Amino acid sequence: MRVVPRRSKGRPESAAPARPAPPAPRPIPPPSEDTAPTAPQAAVPVIRPDAPPPYVPPRPLAEPAGPPGGPRRAPGATPAPLHPAGAVPDGSTAELPAAPYEGTAGQVPDADRRRRERAAQRRRAAVEAKRARAAQRQGRAHREPVASARAADQHRSALIVMIVTLGLLIAAVVVTGGMIAASMRTRPITLAAPLHVYPVTQTTPGQCPAGTQGITGQATTGLACYRLSQGIVIRKVSDLRVQRSRATPGGYDVAVTLRRADRKAFAALTRATVGRDLAFVVRDRLVTLPRVEMAILDGKIVVTGTSDRVAADRLVRDLRGR
Q1: Beta strands in the chain (DSSP E)
Q2: Measured CA angle at 98 (ends 95, 103), to 5 deg
Q3: Which of 37, 80, 188, 280 has the least C-beta neighbours within 10 A?
Q4: Is domain 188-320 annotated with CATH 3.50.50.60?
């Protein structure tokens, strides 16, 4: 369906129709205080198929009437400046409270509330886990030096205990060995035959006549008779051994240690025979004839003059009575 405008009289059909001029807008009366502004009525243009669209003037904006019950702005008055949201006229910015989301009933939906509660619980759990890990790291960092120091102290203590124990064992062995050696040295040696010690009063060449109180022995010039006086008898000694000679380099001596019971008698005998000879007789045989250089008060006798170790060992055997 097309709308065809009516032809004018006296105008040929072949002539092109003239474009109608747009209607002039009606003047808008100024609003008054008693009457509210009304929107202007736009003219309805005639539409032709080959004509451009008609010109439609813009619709003027109505002046705001103001809040209900308040004073109206006078026509031609300068409108109040607009301020952005959250700003106040003096240039400062005020924070406006955000309006909470409300559902149909004006409350937060249950799903959102549960989701927020779960999120808050997860955040609290994450914070607690972080604090626990930090405390654990601090505790481990604090325990590691303590554990290492404790291990070092235990190792040091064990080492000290081991050293002390080893020292005690060595001391015990030394003391035991010393006691054994001392007991062996102090153990009295029982002689196989009693040892008689006589002071020599006179020496004559040759054998002793019968009934003479003396003993015949070998001297450097041959047989000699040694006249004897009252002496002592020794049946046990504390020590009897061969030792290196202190007076003769390379020589050997025979050391005899008397028991405490025989020391006093031997000291009195040597005190009376200083510078004279003593005859050591075993089984009526003269074993040795040493000279007393000084009084022997401690019971330690040293017989010198043996030529070698063999002679010293033979003298020890003879004194033992073997």
Answers
A1: 189-205, 214-219, 222-228, 232-244, 252-258, 278-282, 285-288, 300-306
A2: 170
A3: 80
A4: no
